[in-house]
């Protein structure tokens, strides 16, 4: 009996102790939540803190909880960009987050963002988010390339690749873009005739993939015309790689599978697709090298100029790049491994980002039929013989409104709305606050681009704002919530969708050309409308890029094409 009572006494003590600890923990948590809520509320009301520190949103757990502390559990997968931009509005500027045990300063001021972008890579290097993307990319076979490199390695790659994507060289690619555009419009015409829904993300990704393959690598992979019976290995590989990237960026369980369960089907299949993409790129490299040798032997180096076949591709120029000297000892050639890595990165990046922007272009045109009709009129005026399909630099210059549509969609819905950096030395912000060496920084590039401080009617689709002679009239048609200096606010410096400074997007000229050309061709040949059941606006999903989760539309041939 005594032993039983002694055992019960021990149980009571243990249960009581656990209950006491739970009560203390819950009391502390209640006090902590109350104090944090009061701190956030006070800052939102007064826009200042008692200790001069930056504001911080309401965290889920105290920051000393390590990886899950601070705001880690607050961030919603797929909605992080909207959360970041919403907090910038709530606090009226910069603020701090605590993510996975790291303090992150979120910067939303235009002057500070432009200075940060200008000072990289000397004073700012890639940050936490970008390093996570780099790790995930390397896991799925997209090794370090121009988009992830730092220091002298990045400088060398930039000098070899960027000149081949400037306006002059893109002009030589226009016949290829038009060729792929005709194929793409033919496919869209088949869907229009059958009254089939056009799945825009997949369709535009195939369009941009074929352009990159043919214009940059000299290989016609046929993603647009691929079927289930005759698939496109390179496109299927990139789709699988992109899907794996999204999983590895936001799902810890998938990371564990990748590391420790290599026989899980999606892990095994992703690695197989990665090898298939490498095989396609290696085949292109071999073909270009063989063609370059033949061209050099028969016609000399000048034969490549303006050629739209394999001999004139960007890949051939990269392989034959020199440092301004004919001496072979001065060549800055990539070795075989570097060349494969750079080609792989270009293939993946160029396929995804332009396609996402084109999806948004189509959405805004379905919602603004007057803009679509103006694109049609402009396209048929510039290229009447080819049903609006532009193929020369002179014609492209005349697609002013179509180019404005692409740029406006890019301003509103850039695929890269935020960038991640780490300070390599102390940095003084415009406010006088000093970011210490090693500080993690997130810049909200899109938040600046849609701000009423810099663009009147900043959250509205007004492509005329990019045509100086039409800007004031177009922006004055509707009352704005904010009128900048001089009545109309239009700060071109706030357009950061392509980045800024030394690491501005190297493919921006090619992306703009693709966008204007295919917008003109589609509007010239089809009427656009939302597909039944399509969300309006489309749900936006953010991972390593940002774009519509899905966007489906219905195309109808214009009267002259029926």
UniProtKB/TrEMBL annotation:
This is Cytochrome P450. Pfam families: p450 (PF00067). The chain crosses the membrane at residues 12-32. The lineage of its organism: Eukaryota, Sar, Stramenopiles, Ochrophyta, PX clade. Heme binds at residue 505. PANTHER family: CYTOCHROME P450, CYTOCHROME P450 12A4, MITOCHONDRIAL-RELATED. The keyword Heme applies. The gene is CYP5161B1. Its cofactor is heme. Gene3D superfamilies: Cytochrome P450. Belongs to the cytochrome P450 family. SUPFAM superfamilies: Cytochrome P450. GO terms for molecular function: heme binding; iron ion binding; monooxygenase activity; oxidoreductase activity, acting on paired donors, with incorporation or reduction of molecular oxygen. Keywords: Heme, Iron, Membrane, Metal-binding, Transmembrane, Transmembrane helix. It comes from the Eukaryota.
